[in-house]
Amino acid sequence: xxxxxxxxxxxxxxxxxxxxxxxxxxxxxxxxxxxxxxxxxxxxxxxxxxxxxxxxxxxxxxxxxxxxxxxxxxxxxxxxxxxxxxxxxxxxxxxxxxxxxxxxxxxxxxxxxxxxxxxxxxxxxxxxxxxxxxxx
Length: 136
Prior knowledge:
With about 140 residues, the chain is mostly helical. The protein is about 65% helix and about 10% strand.
């Protein structure tokens, strides 16, 4: 029983130390936010700075033009829908994809296809199998 108590005391001390460091980091972030809020007011910002929604960090999944090139490679094989293209990209990258990643990749593929359509590089083909994309 003494070993258990000693182990728990040691673990509690480690966690308390981590908590202290995290609280200091949080205090530093709070000070940074306050400084930015004051700077916004000095620059003439009229609204409440605390009303600005926090943003998550952008998750970079692809290198420059990588998504576009993989999409074009897939469309060179045959016309495909956006879900098929997204699944192909996930397979090529070798990712173990959960629903969130699949949704993110699909959203990026759809956005890319819209941009490529506006640029005239791909066209939608409405056939018996639904909406397929192909290179124009």
